[in-house]
Give the backbone structure.
Amino acid sequence: SIGQQDPQFTQYMFDRLSLNPGVAGTTGELCGTMLLRQQWTGFDGAPKTALLNVHGNIKRISSGVGLSVFLDKLGQQSSTYARLSYSFHRKVGSSGGTLGIGLAAGLMSHTLGNDWRATQPVSSDNSIPSNGVSDMGWDLAAGLYYTSPTLWAGISSTHLTEVELRNVSIQQRRHFFVQAG
């Protein structure tokens, strides 16, 4: 089956930067967001996800920079994403709107643990790692983001490189996002 690969949050209105690098610095101020999501609290291997976004404006060059860090744990799999974002800003129209054109580059890492419970000895199945394995790769994202006093909207794509992490059998797929408010 093909399923969702990125960590899931329900507060997308507070998580614009990690989905769209064009957001970086468009508020004109230093902004930070921390989100934590826990499901099935108290169960072994329960999903836990954390996100930190920080971004700010560089007025001298009409730009913004940002940092997004994800930590995601689900059963035997742990994932870490870290991205640096850059956004070039251009004023649009007389309403005080700003268009951000952004790029992000970062590193993604996935680890599979070694605490497997199997009906047969783990050594008899080569697809189950006996000592835990990990892999990492470079990642790119791009996006456009418009904001004005009454509207914000963006379109973006993450995982442009569609990196393959062979050690953990993960083929990252490109994701597309459209946001507005």
Observations:
- The mean pLDDT is 87.
